[in-house]
Structures are given as C-alpha cells and as structure tokens.
Amino acid sequence: MSKKELGVLLDSGRKHWKKEEILALLDLIKEKGFNTFQWHFSDFLGFRVKLDSFPEIASDDHLSKEEMREIITYAEKLGIDIVPEFDTPGHLTPMLAKYPTWGVKQIDENGEVKHSDTALDITNPEAKQAVFTILEEILTLFPNSTHFHLGADEFIWFSKVQEFPDLISSSQALVGEVASGLESYVAYTNELIDFMNERGKTPRVWNDGFFRSDVVSKVELSKNVEICYWTKWDEAMATLDTWLEKGYKMLNYNDNYLYYVLGEHSSYTYPTAEKVREGWEEYKFSGEQMVPDAHKHQLVGTYLAIWSDKPEAKTPQEILADISPVMEVMREKVEG
Q: Closest Cα partner for 8 from 48, 42, 38, 40?
C-alpha cells in the first residue's frame, strides 16, 4: 500500500459479525472514500475463524474459511486493502481456555503462582510455536495483504512485571542481571516481526508496551515495523515524539476521538461528527500530541476503531449508522 491509508478497524473477536454484516461494513468503507479494513478477529471473548491447525480455539459463532475468502474477495473487488490482525502475546483468552498451562505464570497477592488466562507464556517453546503455526495459516487466507498487525498490546500490566518470574529469568538470560523483565517480551515481538518480514509482509504493533519510561527494556524494538499509536493514557507510555525521532512510520488511532467502544466501556464516549470536526485533525494523536512538520512524512495512515468491549450494546446496523457521519468528517479532514 503506497497510498496513505484511511481505514476502519473492526473488533469481531469480542462481537461476532456475520458475513453479510462485514460486507455491509465494506460497502460503507467504499462509500465514504476509505481504503483499508483492519480485521481484528480474535480477542478476549472470541476467536472467529476456524483454523485447520487449532480448530478447537474457534468460538461457536465463527466464520468458515470459505466465508472469510468471500469477504476478502469482495474487499478486493471494491479496491479495499485488508490488514489482518492476530493479537499476541496478550488478548489470547480463547487459546488459553483450551491450553491453560500456556498462560504466563504470575505470582498473585497471596504469593501463589497461577497461569494467566489472557497472556501467553512466551518462554514456553510449545506455546510460542503454536502462535507461529497460527500465523502461518492465517497468512494463507490473506495472500494479497501487504501488511499484518501483530497486536503486542496490553500483554501484562507492564509496571508489575516483577510478578512474572519466568519473564524476569528469561530476560536475564538475554541481557544479564540488568534486565527489567520486559526484554523477553520485546524479543518475542521482534521474532514475530522477523517472521513477517521474511514472508514479505510489513508488520505492525500497538504502541503501549514499548520504549516505556517506567520499565525500560534493554532489548529495543525492531525498526522493521510500523507503529499504531492508540493511546497515551499512562504517563509511562512513550510519547509520539519518541517514536518519530526514532524514525518509525506511524498510524493514528487517536483514542480521544477515533475510538468507538461498544457500551462506552473504560470511560470512552462514542465519537460524533461534531466532536471530530471541532477537535481532531489528521496530525493530532492521542493526548493532544501533534506531529511536527519535519516528521509529517512518517504518518502513513489514520483509522477509526470499532472495539466490541460490551458486544451486546449495539447491533452491527446501529454501529454502521453511528460511524457513517464520523467517517465523512474524517475523510474531509484528511483530504483537507
């Protein structure tokens, strides 16, 4: 994708969308002059495709591979690029429900060790290999997609990394006693980045876990990745300027304006055309951070994100009606 992206992210992991409903979203994307669809089809509440390699992790409500191919073909017919997203090493509840010992070990407030039900044990070779196997199969469904989103957000509560003994020990094995504990997480992400690069795909990750000021990793994130900057809610998260000065290409998912979170969960409010028109512009990122003129060439896309935190809050039809005017204003702002 050489053109600047204007896209919509759909979290169909937490809320199942039928094939016809996703096709209707694609029609809206085309109608409003957008060009990209990010398909986030796995999350805490569901894994929405039945894979040959791990069919048991699919939710009861899911799409068949044939249905997914029909959606992909339709998007291509409309000239819409698809960015698939399989989010790891966090947000893996469907997998860990079937393989509970693959959850990273955490020491709780009582000093007891338990396996996480959301976060992968990235020090477990079998668990890691499962991720690569799944990624390989997903890639076969999206042969023409040039980009792939690896997630890498909200793995653990990063400031509490000391509660994860295996992350500490594996990080120390990488860099010695100076390890903070996040080195193994960054190294794992770098492995995924290399995996995608080797297959001719441009990988992406979310911003919140890297170059933090509170827990500093001695292993740095690869430069061969694009950054989807969604939030600065935590002061310890790296600033926009940090990423820009390191030379990363950036995508704007400003959660203050462009996050449509079902049920208005986590204190989010639904975006409106009026709010976007009055407060947002293309180079304004979360936390009112602006891209300096000298770095504007590093912005490669802007997205409206539909997150299904409370899946029952709205129907797909209501969601499409809500986002339609917001998309119009976004396009106006981006096109100037």
A: 38
Which residues are within 8 A (CB) of 20 and not within 5 positions of it... i.e. 6 or more apart? none
Domain boundaries, the chain: 5-335
Length of the chain: 336
C-alpha to C-alpha distance for 223 and 267, rounded to whole angstroms? 33
DSSP-assigned letters across all residues of 128-142:
HHHHHHHHHHHHHH-
Q: Which residues pair with 301 in a beta bridge?
A: 5, 251
Q: Could you read off the pLDDT of 274-329 as tens digits, one per residue? A: 999 999 999 999 999 999 999 999 999 999 999 999 999 999 999 999 999 999 99
Element (H, E) at 172: helix 165-175
Q: Under DSSP, is residue 160 helix (H, G, I), strand (E, B) or coil?
A: helix
Rounded CA separation 310/79 (Å): 31
- Give residue-wise pLDDT tens across range 233-278: 999 999 999 999 999 999 999 999 999 999 999 999 999 999 999 9
Residue 123 · residue 170 · CB < 8 Å: yes
Number of helices followed by number of strands (H, E) in the chain: 9, 15
User: CB of 149 within 8 A of CB of 228?
Assistant: yes
Strand boundaries in 178-335, DSSP class E: 202-206, 226-229, 250-252, 259-261, 284-285, 289-290, 299-307
- Other beta carbons within 10 angstroms of residue 198's beta carbon come to 8
Tell me the two tokens of residue 10: 């759909």
The burial of 41, by beta-carbon neighbours within 10 Å (0-12 exposed, 13-18 middle, 19 or more buried), is given as buried
Name the residue with tokens 């409206």. Answer: 304
Question: Please, are residues 309 and 262 in contact by the beta-carbon 8 Å criterion?
Answer: yes
User: Are 85 and 57 contacting, i.e. CB atoms less than 8 angstroms apart?
Assistant: no
Q: What are the pLDDT digits (tens) for 204-240? A: 999 999 999 999 999 999 999 999 999 999 999 999 9
CATH code of the region 5-335: 3.20.20.80
Cβ-contact 122, 104 below 8 angstroms: yes
Amino acid letter for position 190: N
